[in-house]
Amino acid sequence: MLTKTLVVNGTEHRVLCDDNDFLVDVLRNQLHYTSVKIGCGKGACGACSVILNGKVTRACITKMRRVPDFASITTVEGVGRATNLHPLQQAWIYHGAVQCGFCTPGFIVSAYQLLQENLSPTREDVRDWFQKHHNVCRCTGYKHLVDAVMDAAAIMRGEKTIDDITWKKPEDGRIWGTRMPRRTGVAKVTGQAEYGADLALKMPPDTLHLALTQAKVSHANILNIDTSEAEKMPGVYRVLTYKDVKGKNRITGLITFPSNLGDGWDRPILNDTKIFQYGDALAIVCADTEKHARAAAEKVKVDLELLPEYMDAPSAKAPDAIEIHPGTPNTYFITHVVKGDDPEPAFSDPENEWVEESYYTQRQPHLPLEPDCGFAYINEQGQLVIHSKSIGIHLHGLMIAPGLGVELGKDLVMVANTAGGTFGYKFSPTLEALVGVAALATGRPVHLNYNYEQQQNYTGKRSPFWTTLKLAANKKTGKIAGLVSDWDCDHGPYSEFGDLLTLRGSQYIGAGYGIANIRGEGRTVCTNHCWGSAFRGYGAPEVEFPFEVCMDELAHKMGWDPFEFRYVNVYRPGDTTPTQQVPEVFSLPEMFDKMRPIYEDSKKRTAARSTAEVKCGTGIALGVYAAGLDGADSSEAWAELNDDGTITIGASWGDHGQGATCGMLGSAHETLRVMGIDESQIRLVMNDSSKTPNSGPAGGSRSQVVVGNSIRVACEQLVDVMRKPEGGWYTRKELVELGREPKQQGKWTAPCTDCDVETGKGDPFCCYMYGLFLAEVSVEVKTGKTTVDRLVCVTDIGKVNNYLVVDGQIFGGMAQGVGLALTEDYEDLKKHATMAGAGIPTIKDIPDDMEIIYVETPRKDGPYGASGVGEMPLTAPHPAIINAIYNACGARIRHLPAYPEKVLAAMPK
Predict the structure, then answer these.
(1) What residues contact residue 874 under an 8 Å CB cut-off, 6+ apart?
(2) How far apart are CA 558 and CA 311, in angstroms?
(3) Which is catalytic among the residues 496, 640, 679, 871?
(4) How confident is the model at residue 254 (pLDDT cuts 50, 70, 90)?
(5) Among candidates 217, 213, 237, which has minimal Cα distance to 226?
(6) Residue 166: how many CA atoms within 13 Å on its side-chain side?
């Protein structure tokens, strides 16, 4: 042990630590500077950035022996406070550079030091700086971050004022359709927003810290679990196994379709009879510190009978493959598409041209900067309370309650913490049941924090799709004459939502185009790789990639320009979707008309830029997704008039970090402004099952449409009961005296029907989102390395609630499309276990040249004409990039990601 004096933000602190302690742990655990985050834990993400003696330093890899006595350390708390924001912090808010906010303190600290050294940086200087200092953002696409630094620098040079980057409310007070910053912005840019690991530092002294003993193989029978040695380790209170689980010890997958051959109870909380995947939880160590818990977890002995490991769909489908879940076939769900006449004659018609190819989309990891974390305790009412990154608290409560032996609403409460990004993996429960088991078994508060390796191996991933398409079109007219599709969904070992994901192939292969004759079959396959969970786009990136690449392949074979080939086939009146639904709007021709001059100019510019060493090209792709879950999707919300005249809105609008507060506030204020109420008079209560109703999960881009409509209904009802016959509005006291309810419950249900799994036919969604993507790339001929130089999205998502939020969603989604196209994967359990190893894009991987063009066609069923946004930007930027690679150098990539070696091998020799 040693003592050191640290001067943090100008204040001296004397600390007691070990030589090998990391600076981040001293700052967080001893001094409570929780703005310094632990993300990757390997120095690859910059969330832990501080300024140490004038240099940007990654505190998670800096050991205390390297920190001098009286070192000067600056964290974001020393850059500015809520009442005195630094220009960087104000610019971050103004430009929407803060989304989930987990990376924000590290970025601002890094940028602060940049401006100390260079007050007149170029945009490329800023990008180079963040690249050099390993600052990574998963949410924003980086463009807004550079915008913020440039404006802050201009203010510090005296060329702009703070007022120039302060949002001005319109004179009429209306916030719908504006760029109003999110309410959480100030807390996030000052480091005051508290995430799960931050809250753990404030838990009671008797809190137990948890660590998991996890499977190190992917498939085995469990013969015995011996905890005796672990129980003797220092600080250990108890070691729990499946024997300590009070309920069914299973997380229900909530089977969607009766034809699913599984029973939905295939995922253990703590594995008892078998290991189904690498990382499965076998025991929970409860100890006085996380360090002690992790050390003891390594001492749990597990005797196994190893079984064959089926790490992809083809191997799990092999004739000699054993059933992963005995009694349930590895192929456990099948769905079909039957639309129009049999398309097979189209492939033998001499007037048609056709192609048939196979494609693969990979097991894309979500790569949030914040690793999964959560805690649980028993409250004064004897209820189990679970806090986590959940974006569907009621859904998760229903999924885990039987396994724990409790009942949601009666003795189980679910609460969502501020989340440092999820991008869909938290549509599935992760550690909720684990902390629930520990709290129930010990009767004490408990906390569990994953490191990044655990984030990778024990949270869900995008399910890989293996897709074969056969597509025919008339050589003269270009009209598509027939489509045959076949796809396998590798959903890992656990069935939750696997059938629904597989159905997305029926709904989105060919979406956006008027195709009269379609046949298709899709299958859900159980494997031993990481379990499949929702990921932004949920099915569309998996199936629109093959279709949009196939469209290009057929266009080239016919001698058509890929843009014009798409244009003649997009939805027009008389066309229907692959599910035989009439599209709610027909704006695609207008979207293409807006993109056409950009596309033509882009082709000329990329051709002019090409050299013998670096080939440049332009690609195009169309993406379609719906805003909602299938069928009669519904949500509940409430609106309550308070004694002081303010109004409180309650809803469980899940927040991945995308800006749920803006969605709620905009939807409520647009309804309530008839009363002259200002947005500042609206309070929000969110995501606590003891206080907020079941609004459904934040998935499928449903929130703005479905939850937004329920908020609209609740507010309309409140307006009605408050309206005086003679004009004016009743107070809460007057309402009570009149016997009227000052708290109105609102509910809205989508006017939709489920799809038939045998034909795919149905009207599953009332609002869709459309995105037309253009990508420009440069390909190094010698290495195959691809750089994305430009991205453009022309989109119709209905009327926009908040442009600042929506811009950020689209830029961020397109950036994830770059990763999906070129770098990201979770296939190798070791290599891909880190953030960097899994291929997260850094700022120099994402183009600074990104543009959004809105076509705002009002949606009849959307609140105030809005549709959703979240999934749309990741539907098809990746096929646009892949098509651009082909147009640049002739390399046709059908198996993602397009690593340099794949591109090099595919180049014409």
Answers:
(1) 536, 537, 540, 541, 623, 813, 814, 816, 817, 820
(2) 38
(3) 871
(4) confident
(5) 213
(6) 8
Binning the chain into helix, strand and coil, the percentages to the nearest 5 are 30, 25, 45
3-class SS at 456?
A: helix
- Write the pLDDT tens digit of every residue in 121-171: 999 999 999 999 999 999 999 999 999 999 999 999 999 999 999 999 999
Give me the half-sphere count of Cα atoms (radius 13 Å) on the Cβ side of residue 782: 3
Confidence band (pLDDT; 50, 70, 90) for 253? Answer: confident
Query: Looking only at Cα atoms, what is the longest distance across the chain?
Result: 85
- Tokens standing for 120? 């007149």
Cis peptide before 181, with omega less than 30 degrees from 0? no
Strands (E), 288-330: 301-306
CA separation for the pair 360, 542 (Å, rounded): 8
The DSSP annotation for 338-377 comes to: EESS-SGGGGT-TTEEEEEEEEEE-------SSPPEEEEE
Judge whether residue 191 has pLDDT over 90: yes
Any idea what the Cα angle at residue 785 is, between residues 781 and 788, rounded to 5°? 110
Query: Does the pLDDT at position 887 exceed 80?
Result: yes
Residue-by-residue DSSP string for 756-771: PTTT--S---S-EEEE
CB 636 within 8 A of CB 671: no
The count of residues in the chain is 909
Give the relative orientation of helices 588-609 and 877-889 as an angle to the nearest 10 degrees: 40
Residue 451, judged by CB atoms within 10 A of its CB (0-12, 13-18, 19+), counts as middle
Region for 490 from its dihedrals, namely left if φ exceeds 0, alpha if ψ lies in -120 to 50, beta otherwise: beta
Contact 64, 22 (CB under 8 A): yes
Which residues face 769 on adjacent strands?
A: 625
Query: Residue 549: pLDDT above 80?
Result: yes
Which secondary-structure segment (H or E) carries 718? helix 708-722
- Sign for the CA dihedral angle at 196, 197, 199, 204 comes to positive
- Phi, psi for 202 (deg, rounded to 5): -105, 5
| Alpha carbon separation from 191 to 422, 472, 580, 686, 897 (Å, rounded) | 19, 56, 50, 21, 35
For the stretch 362-416, pLDDT in tens is: 999 999 999 999 999 999 999 999 999 999 999 999 999 999 999 999 999 999 9
Contact (Cβ atoms closer than 8 angstroms) between residue 33 and residue 45: no
- How far from each other are the two terminal CA atoms of the chain, in whole angstroms? 63
Angle at the Cα of 764 from the Cα atoms of 761 and 766, rounded to 5 degrees: 130
Sign of the four-CA dihedral 398, 403, 408, 413: negative
| Matching residue, tokens 């030091």 | 113
Query: What mean pLDDT, rounded, does the chain reach?
Result: 98
Which strands form 274-275's sheet, in the order they lie side by side? 274-275, 220-226, 301-306
Q: What are phi and psi of 58, to 5 degrees?
A: -90, 105
Whole-angstrom distance, CA of residue 66 vs CA of residue 82: 32
Q: What is the mean pLDDT of residues 853-858?
A: 98
Catalytic site includes residue 871: yes
**Judging by beta carbons within 10 Å of its beta carbon (0-12, 13-18, 19+), is residue 194 exposed, middle or buried?**
middle
Which pLDDT does position 256 carry in this prediction? 73
The whole-angstrom separation of Cα 577 and Cα 581 is: 5
**Residue 19 neighbours by CB distance under 10 Å:** 10
Residue 877: which pLDDT band, with cuts at 50, 70 and 90?
very high
Cα 227 to Cα 223, 681, 757, distances in angstroms? 14, 55, 46
Percent with pLDDT over 70 in the chain: 100
Sheet strands (E) in 379-464: 384-388, 412-416, 446-449
